[in-house]
Amino acid sequence: MVDTMRKKIFILAPVAIMTALVIYFFFFKGEDKKDKFTFADITRGDLNTTITSSGTLDAIKKVDVGTQVSGILAKIYVDFNYEVKKGQMLALIDTTFLAAQVRDSKAGLERAQAQYESSFAKHKRNKQLFEKGYLSELDFINSKTALKSDSASLNSAASALERAKTNLSYAFIVAPMSGKIINRNVEQGQTVAASFSTPTLFTITDDLAQMKILATVDESDIGQIKLRQDVQFTVQSYPDKKFTGKVVQVRLNPQVIQNVVNYTIVVNADNSEKLLLPGMTATVEFFIEQKKDVLLIPNSALRFQPNEDLLAEFKKNLEKEMANAPDSIKNRFKNREGGGSGNSSGRGFGNSSNRTRNFGSVWYLDETGKLKTSRVVLGVTDGKNTEIVRGRNLKEGMKVISGIVENNTQVQNNKTNILNPQSNMPRSPRRGF
User: Fold this and answer.
1) Which of 6-20, 44-58, 387-401 has the lowest mean pLDDT?
2) Distances (CA, A) of 380 to 217, 280, 418
3) Cα separation of 333 and 351, whole Å?
4) Mean pLDDT of 294-298
5) Could you give the CA distance from residue 50 to residue 86 in angstroms, rounded to a whole number?
6) Helix or strand holding residue 429 (H, E)
7) Rounded distance, CA 222 to CA 51, Å?
8) Given Cys at both, which of 40, 81, 155, 180 links 298, Cβ 3.0 to 4.6 Å?
9) What single string gives the DSSP state of each residue in 151-205?
């Protein structure tokens, strides 16, 4: 029995060792190289380059209702948030003195009318006497002058009456347009004085189904703002909801804010849900360029550069591959090695300084775990991802290297790749990500 157990142990021990070695080589040893790197995925989606700004929401049309006469507010008929129609009574100023002025003006008009009629009759008689030679020319001129003076007094009295009636009508404060009362600055019984300036009693806005945003954009970005440009914005009250609008006006009057020249952009926005209120602060994104269904690569992968050891290993593997390649490919490779004037460590691998700014290089591991690189033609960027216009061996879902892990700590390579377009894409200090 003991011998049998020993035989089983003797047989199972090597099997266990072999199994452990297989597991190690297949599952651990093969991933040693992968454990050296962090990876990012190439995805497909939409890319928007934007300029981010902030502004204040307001009604498209807003009217301050005031008064042109002084007096005590006898009645107030509306309050905050009242819906009013054009011509509707809002408030009434006490009419005691204004009505008295109308009566006094009427009396003055009657006096002037009577005086004019008397002067007219006298002048008519004097004219007949003057024509017959019974009245001197001087007396006739005085009669004529008196008639003109009384006529002027009559017209003045009529104007005074008209002015008194107008002032009386101003005591009836009516809505100049249909809309909603968003502000009321007075209380019933309060005295308002219109001597030097027109006091504001109410503020009325039109239909709040349409709103406007007054956003500020600095001079470095204003050249990219166009009329009818699409806009997306959020407000703090609804941080997860996106609202849309369009640019309707670019005001040319500059404003200097903290030594930066800014311009006011007017954006019209739909508010059919009535969620937006006047005075809200909006974070606005102006869409500069939009790309649909394109290959996207994270910018961290474009910033990655292998160290000297990795480059040496890569070059050694590449030379082995070139040994079995046709002569045409060998000659092309030699030309690439000798043509760059930049960093020698990157020469021939997509890092030479004579490349155009729209090119970049991406590093990845092939099926055998070898380090590979691919040149890519890059498009627009939003600061986080960049469009891949063209790239050899790159496809959706592919994992590319974005960093190196040393001692279980990720080391992000932040060196600027000579071919990295991050510094060459259209930049904005307020570009939205």
Assistant:
1) 6-20
2) 21, 32, 17
3) 14
4) 89
5) 42
6) none
7) 10
8) 40
9) HHHHHHHHHHHHHHHHHHHHTEEE-SSSEEEEEE---TT-EE--SSS--EEEEEE
pLDDT, tens digit (0-9, with 9 covering 90-100), for 106-145 = 999 999 999 999 999 999 999 999 888 888 999 989 999 9
- Location of structure tokens 């006006």: 249
Q: Is residue 357 classed as helix, strand or coil in its secondary structure? A: coil
C-alpha closest to that of 362 among 381, 346, 375, 347:
375
pLDDT tops 60 at residue 22: no
DSSP state of 35: G
Q: Taken in order 400, 405, 408, 412, is the CA torsion positive or negative?
A: negative
Residue 91 tokens read as 């408030």
Q: What is the pLDDT of residue 11?
A: 53
Q: How many CB atoms lie within 10 A of CB 62?
A: 16
Side chain identity, residue 94: D
Tell whether the torsion through CA atoms of 98, 102, 103 and 109 is positive or negative: positive
In terms of Cα–Cα distance, which of 63, 62, 64, 68 is closest to 198? 68
Average pLDDT of the segment spanning 369-395: 86
**Which tens digits make up the pLDDT trace of 39-76?**
989 899 888 888 899 999 999 999 999 999 999 999 99
DSSP summary character for residue 369? S
121: tokens are 């009759």
Tell me the torsion sign for CA atoms 302, 308, 312, 315. positive
**Rounded Cα gap, residues 94 and 76, in angstroms:** 11
Task: Note whether 298 and 284 are within 8 A (CB).
Answer: no
Q: Is the pTM of this model over 0.85?
A: no
Buried-exposed string 326-343: b where 16+ CB fall within 10 A, e elsewhere: eeeeeeebeeeeeebeee
Residue 310 has pLDDT above 60, yes or no: yes
Q: Are 260 and 218 in contact (CB under 8 A)?
A: yes
Structure tokens at 207: 């239909």
218-239 burial, b at 16+ Cβ within 10 Å, e below that, comes to beebbebbeeebbbbbbbeeee
Specify whether the CB–CB gap between 151 and 112 falls below 8 A: no
Asked if 388 and 295 count as a contact pair (C-beta separation under 8 A), the reply is: yes
Site of tokens 């292998």: 306
